[in-house]
TrEMBL record:
Pfam families noted in UniProt: p450 (PF00067)
Superkingdom of the organism of origin: Eukaryota
Signal peptide: 1-18
Keywords: Iron, Metal-binding, Signal
Swiss-Prot/TrEMBL GO biological process terms: organic acid metabolic process; xenobiotic metabolic process
Molecular function GO labels: heme binding; iron ion binding; oxidoreductase activity, acting on paired donors, with incorporation or reduction of molecular oxygen, reduced flavin or flavoprotein as one donor, and incorporation of one atom of oxygen
Key word Iron present: yes
Protein name as it appears in the record: Uncharacterized protein
GO CC entries: cytoplasm
Family membership noted in the UniProt record: Belongs to the cytochrome P450 family.
Length: 161
């Protein structure tokens, strides 16, 4: 075997397992597939339980090329979410979300949403004098109906709308 092939294979395998720093122990992942071949994708719970017996209640997996931390048991989940919430508060990176944020930015998307919301409210009459008159007329009608009735009254909801 060519020594360069051995070096290349070592580099691929070493890089596959060691690029996740500060992660709990877990099974050795395969390049590209990670630990997917170790899991029954129809019902992975039994495989996750088996791995928990071997690596403890907190262990790591690679799902494809993405690293993941598995919390198994109430105590492990409580410790992660309550006691070490700062370490576990991150979110997984998603290519679609990253692309949307990088292209438009969160400020631009907020401005677009604000502009759309105000435009929609204006279409329904926000800030228009005509809408104010309609609302006042309907309020007058409701007040007259309530004044005319004594005790129980029947109010037609179509009038309100």
């Amino acid at each position: 075997i060519d020594p360069w092939v051995v070096v290349l294979l070592y580099f691929i395998l070493f890089r596959t397992h060691s690029n996740v720093k500060n992660f709990p122990p877990g099974p050795w992942p395969l390049p590209v597939f990670g630990n997917l071949l170790e899991l029954n994708l129809d019902s992975p719970t039994s495989d996750l339980q088996r791995l928990a017996k071997r690596y403890g209640s907190i262990y790591s997996l690679k799902i494809g090329s993405k690293p993941a931390v598995v919390l198994n048991g109430l105590q492990a989940i409580k410790e992660a979410l309550v006691n070490k919430s700062e370490d576990f508060s991150g979110r997984p990176q998603d290519l679609l979300i990253n692309h949307a944020v990088n292209v438009k930015g969160i400020v631009l998307s907020w401005r677009e949403q604000r502009r759309f919301g105000l435009m929609t409210l204006r279409n329904f009459g926000l800030g228009k004098q005509s809408m104010e008159n309609r609302i006042l007329q309907e309020i007058d009608r409701i007040v007259r109906v309530l004044e005319q009735s004594t005790g129980m009254f029947k109010l037609n909801t179509v009038t309100i709308l």
